[in-house]
């Protein structure tokens, strides 16, 4: 299994570990220390050796930070994890605060006293974040101090070794563009930014640029590395040489100078001494990188990491790979849904056993590399926890007359998938059918949107909420995130959400479409497809060509939960057309029993 269901957290260890950290604070003459969830690459997934927040507090979510100042200690997580933080963290030791409503900066303003020194690891905190933290400290008469070594590491006796996942070359048939061409293209962008070089800190940017993949973190084929890319000339790749087989090193040496990660700071110092101007994404790059350049006399040009946008706009080969991956994954998913429909009425299934079976169907394709994230498998009240992680400890049986939500994805060498379906087990209530249909209407509104060139995701977000808003309902997560090409299932820079993300949607981007509704303590509903942004085309009688979406995901939507009386003619046509496409695409790839089930599941309504 790619997914583990073990409970690795033990909140009872929190007090002793906090005491050890406070002892380290005293020995270094500090009054406080900040412990972010992120590593030096600011990635969604971090290796076990970098899970400092989890080690200290027990919290295993993908976003958060802990702060210890004097006698006060707090953990900050967002609305996705309000239940999880209570289950995993001893809240008598770490007070819970909402990451956005009660941010770290406001808490520091409350607890800081003049003369206090608060330590932080300058590799783990981006420049933009440090500026805000420093401002708060300055205003309180306190000092923000970059430490030479991380305090948590000093008291973490059984800290795992850093990962050494083997790096492999990503075939051109899937990448669609030679690495040397990508490097030249990115170099030109760097020059246009009036910089002489750029520092890349994002492993997925580096994987895309050099056409490599790795296995340093869970569920995402990333090699942890840094790179310096000049506007002209050969880049330098900073990666642990033990990850490179001889043929991989030979291929990469043609493209870049290969150095160890320990050489990064010295190389940045040389750039600074040479008075170079260096492009740095201050929302992603650690403060230590900025200080190395500027401290040696160089200039930092602030701007988005130059690979982010080109990587998000898939080329023809990547789009073809995504289509193929979704057809393959769709066939496996159809087999899974047919199995579930047959097995669920018995009441013998559990949240864990269903995830295990879904992974089995995906493995049967013979092409599964990994799952793309830990499957969210929630029945009844667990479905209402939008980022619920099932474990053997929390595993619930799937009983008749409940709603079951399964959010899952797969990593294939030609594409990454992410799909959510909500399934009726037994007879759904009228309320459940109504709310499911409202979510479906929201999903269709976004899937059928046409929008002008220059539109950003924030402008489209309302489309996926308006039907819910009319009914006095909403959901507290983003509507859509970018998806990589055999890379991260959550990929920037574009997304569809309420926030002020101003990245314009462009043809070739792949984003999720996943509105939902969650009735706390009872059930959850989400419908998620991945959507490809299609080129702008003319509309009959229109004046401007419009972009649009095409659904890549191919899987039936549970018709038992659809109240067709609430659908407009256009919405009903979309549903029937989509289901016909699902059947036509998948029927040739499944066995007769699944085909028979699929025909019924995609019937015209």
UniProtKB/TrEMBL annotation:
Domain Peptidase M24 C-terminal, which positions?
545-604
- Note one Pfam family from the annotation: Peptidase_M24
**Any single Gene Ontology cellular-component annotation:** cytoplasm
Name the source's superkingdom: Bacteria
Q: Which positions, given as ranges, span the membrane?
A: none
Creatinase N-terminal domain mapped to chain residues: 17-149
Under Gene Ontology molecular function, one entry of this record is:
metal ion binding
Q: Does the keyword Protease apply?
A: yes
- Which species? Pseudovibrio exalbescens
The record's annotation in InterPro entries points to: Creatin/AminoP/Spt16_N, Creatinase/aminopeptidase-like, Creatinase_N, Pept_M24, Pept_M24B, Peptidase_M24_C, X-Pro_aminopeptidase_P
Q: Answer whether the UniProt record assigns the keyword Metal-binding to this protein.
A: yes
Q: Which UniProt keywords apply?
A: Aminopeptidase, Hydrolase, Metal-binding, Protease
Report what the protein is called: X-Pro aminopeptidase
Family indicated by similarity: Belongs to the peptidase M24B family.
Which intervals hold domain Peptidase M24? 321-534
């Amino acid at each position: 299994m790619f997914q583990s269901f073990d409970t690795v957290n033990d909140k009872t260890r929190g007090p002793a570990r906090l005491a050890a950290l406070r002892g380290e604070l005293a020995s270094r003459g500090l009054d406080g220390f900040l412990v972010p969830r992120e590593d030096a690459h600011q990635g969604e997934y971090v290796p076990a050796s970098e899970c400092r927040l989890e080690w200290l507090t027990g919290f295993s979510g993908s976003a958060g930070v802990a702060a210890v100042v004097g006698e006060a200690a707090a953990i900050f997580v967002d609305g996705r994890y309000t239940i999880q933080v209570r289950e995993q963290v001893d809240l008598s030791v770490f007070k819970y605060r909402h990451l956005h409503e009660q941010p770290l900066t406001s808490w520091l303003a409350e607890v800081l006293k003049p003369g206090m020194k608060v330590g932080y690891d300058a590799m783990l905190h981006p420049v933009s974040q440090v500026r805000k933290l420093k401002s708060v400290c300055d205003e309180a008469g306190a000092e923000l101090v970059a430490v030479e070594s991380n305090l948590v590491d000093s008291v973490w006796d059984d800290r795992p070794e850093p990962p050494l996942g083997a790096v492999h070359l990503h075939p051109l048939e899937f990448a669609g563009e030679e690495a040397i061409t990508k490097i030249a293209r990115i170099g030109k962008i760097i020059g246009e930014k009036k910089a002489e070089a750029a520092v890349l800190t994002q492993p997925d940017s580096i994987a895309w640029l050099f056409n490599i993949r790795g296995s340093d973190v869970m569920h995402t084929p990333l090699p942890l590395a840094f790179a310096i890319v000049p506007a002209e000339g050969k880049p330098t790749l900073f990666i642990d040489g033990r990850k490179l087989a001889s043929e991989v090193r030979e291929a990469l040496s043609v493209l870049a100078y290969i150095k160890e990660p320990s050489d990064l700071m010295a190389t940045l110092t040389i750039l600074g001494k040479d008075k170079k101007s260096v492009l740095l994404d201050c929302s992603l790059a650690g403060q230590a990188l900025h200080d190395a350049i500027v401290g040696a006399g160089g200039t930092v040009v602030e701007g988005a990491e130059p690979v982010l946008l080109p990587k998000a706009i898939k080329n023809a080969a990547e789009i073809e790979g995504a289509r193929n991956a979704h057809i393959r994954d769709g066939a496996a998913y159809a087999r899974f849904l047919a199995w579930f429909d047959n097995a669920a009425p018995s009441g013998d299934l559990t949240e864990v056993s269903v995830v295990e079976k879904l992974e089995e169907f995906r493995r049967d394709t013979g092409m599964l590399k990994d799952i793309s994230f830990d499957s969210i498998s929630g029945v009844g009240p667990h479905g209402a926890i939008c980022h619920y992680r099932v474990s053997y400890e929390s595993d619930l049986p799937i009983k008749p007359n409940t709603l079951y939500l399964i959010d899952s994805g797969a990593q294939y060498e030609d594409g990454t998938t992410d799909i959510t379906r909500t399934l009726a087990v037994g007879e759904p209530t009228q309320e459940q059918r109504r709310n499911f249909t409202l979510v479906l209407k929201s999903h269709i509104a976004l899937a059928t949107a046409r929008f002008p060139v220059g539109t950003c995701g924030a402008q489209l977000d309302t489309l996926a909420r308006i039907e819910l808003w009319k009914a006095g309902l909403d959901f507290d997560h983003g509507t859509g995130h970018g998806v990589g090409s055999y890379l991260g299932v959550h990929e920037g820079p574009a997304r569809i959400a309420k926030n002020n993300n101003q990245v314009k949607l462009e043809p070739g981007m792949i984003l999720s479409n996943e509105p939902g509704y969650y009735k706390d303590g009872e059930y959850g509903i989400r419908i998620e497809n991945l959507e490809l942004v299609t080129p702008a085309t003319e509309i009959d009688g229109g004046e401007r060509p419009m972009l649009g979406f095409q659904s890549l995901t191919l899987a039936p939507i549970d018709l038992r939960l659809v109240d067709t009386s609430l659908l407009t003619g256009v919405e009903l046509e979309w549903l029937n057309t989509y289901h016909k496409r699902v059947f036509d695409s998948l029927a040739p790839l499944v066995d007769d029993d699944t085909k028979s089930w699929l025909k019924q599941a995609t019937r015209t309504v």
